[in-house]
C-alpha cells in the first residue's frame, strides 16, 4: 500500500539527524562550561599569586622599614638649637654624618669589651658630602682625638654638660648624636642634614651580606685587642674579620690612629666598590640581605628613618662614579700641648670646610699616586681663593690649585691626600 497523495513518510534518516544535532549542542555547551570554569580558576589562581606576591612584598617592606631605629631624641635636641645651626648654602647638596659606635650594649656587642652601663663613644666619625649634581661624594674622617670646642649638651640623665675644650669623641659620650652634630657644625660651619649611627654587629652584618671584602696584606696581623689574626697575602674578610681589621691599632702598621683611619677609608671604598660591581642594588635576591643587615644596624634621623628614605640615598650613591667616591682625613697635626692629641692645621682645614660648604670641587690624591681629579660642583667664582699649605704631618696634605684667569676653567681648588673607591684595597 501506498500513502495518500502529498504525504511524505518520516524516514529513518530524518530521525538520526535530530539526535545528532542535540548531541552536538550538548557537547558544545559542555566545552563552553569547561572553558569558562578553566578561565575562572585561572583568574582566581592568578589573583591569588598576585595577592601573595604583593602581600610578601608588603611584608618584606614592613619588616625592613620596622628594623630602622629612629633617633627622635637627637632631632628634638637639634630643634632646640636651630637658631645657632649653620644655614645650608647649596640646597641640593647633602651632608650626612656617619658614626661608628663602640658601644658594648646590644646583642652581640658585649664580646668586644665590658658594657659600661650602656656608655658609648664614637669609634669612627665621617662627614659624607654628596654633591648637588650627585656626580661625586667626599668622605672626611674626623679624628677622635682632635681637640675641639664641645658645646653644652644634654646628657642621657637629663642634666647638662658645660662648654669645654676636649677631645672630639667625648661629645658622643657626653650627649650622643646631637652633641656630636653640634660640635661638628661649630667646628666646620657645615650644616649636617642627616646622620646614621652603626654599631659593631651592624657593620659585621653588612660585610657578611655582600659575601665579604677582599684585602691584601703585606705582613701577617695579630692584634689580640681587636680579636684579629690574619696571614699575609690576598684574602676575603668576613664580617668578624672586617670589624677587627678596621678597629685594629696593634700588630698592624705603626699602630697610629692615622693609619687606622686610612685603613677604614680604604675598606669602606672597597665595600662600596663591591656593592656596585656585583650589582647588589639591582638584584632583589642579593639586595634583601644587605638591606636587612643595614636596616637592623642603624639608628638615624627621622628624615632617613624609612626604607624609602634609605633607598633614595642609595639611589643617589648609585649614580656616583666609583673614582669620584673619595676619602680623606681633615688636615691635622699633633696638639702642641699634648702630642697624644690632634689639632687642626690652618688654613688648610678651613679651605676644605669652605669647599664642602659651597659644594666646590675637591681633589684627592693618594700618597705617591695620581691626582683623582676634582669632585663637587663647579666653583662659583673664578678666583683661586685661599692658598692651601702643606700639612706638617701625614694624612690630608692639601696643595694649592692653579689660579684661574679670565675665560679659563674655574680653579679646581686644593688637593688633599686620600683615596678613592676605585682603588679598592689591593691596588
Task: Describe this protein's structure.
- With 427 residues, this protein is an alpha+beta fold.
- The protein is 37% helix and 20% strand.
- It contains nine helices and 18 strands.
- The chain has helices spanning 12-67, 72-80, 170-188, 200-209, 239-247, 257-277, 284-297, 307-318, 348-357; strands spanning 69-70, 94-101, 122-130, 137-141, 147-150, 164-167, 194-198, 213-217, 221-223, 228-230, 233-237, 298-300, 325-329, 332-335, 338-344, 362-365, 371-375, 415-420.
- Helix 1 (12-67) runs parallel beside helix 7 (284-297), helix 2 packs across helix 3 (170-188) and helix 4 runs antiparallel to helix 7 (284-297).
- The radius of gyration is 32 Å and the shape is globular.
- It starts with 11 loop residues before the first helix and ends in a 7-residue tail after the last strand.
